[in-house]
Amino acid sequence: MTVAKIVYASLTGNTEEIADIVAEALESHDVEVEVNECTQVDAADFLDADICIVASYTYDDFLLPDEIIDFHEELLDLDLTGKVYGVVGSGDTFYPYFCQVVDQFDKAFASVGATKGAQSVKVELAPEEQDIVALQSFAKILVEKSKLN
């Protein structure tokens, strides 16, 4: 069975909701899913997963949230060759660098050899209907890519 690990950082609950939507969508495709808050796991836990997902909000303009900085640094020390990854997150278009942390994690995964499974999904604040559809599609594409990998 395909195993997915979702690690998230959420301040207001929006990103946790995004992670839960992705988890539910993955489960509907017969994927075993584990969802953890970023301070409760190590990046090395991704080594036990087929699909690796980070969900994070962007703090202020472009800063990694304090609680996910260590996780991000640990991720950069891994070799995730053979793993499929995806990144989702929430942000506020009030700031000039909307959801910049999503892009930072995308680059981090690529730098450690993981295969991008789906285009990242960036959500304005809380997920609305069109975001839910995009997140469900994101999950489906990740599952399809993991079967090819």
UniProtKB/TrEMBL annotation:
Cofactor(s) for this UniProt protein: FMN
Record-linked PROSITE patterns: FLAVODOXIN, FLAVODOXIN_LIKE
A GO MF term: electron transfer activity
UniProt entry keywords in alphabetical sequence: Electron transport, Flavoprotein, FMN, Transport
SUPFAM superfamilies for the chain: Flavoproteins
Domain Flavodoxin-like stretches: 4-143
PANTHER family recorded: FLAVODOXIN 1 (PTHR42809:SF1), FLAVODOXIN 2 (PTHR42809)
Described function: Low-potential electron donor to a number of redox enzymes.
Similarity comment text for this entry: Belongs to the flavodoxin family.
Name assigned to this protein: Flavodoxin
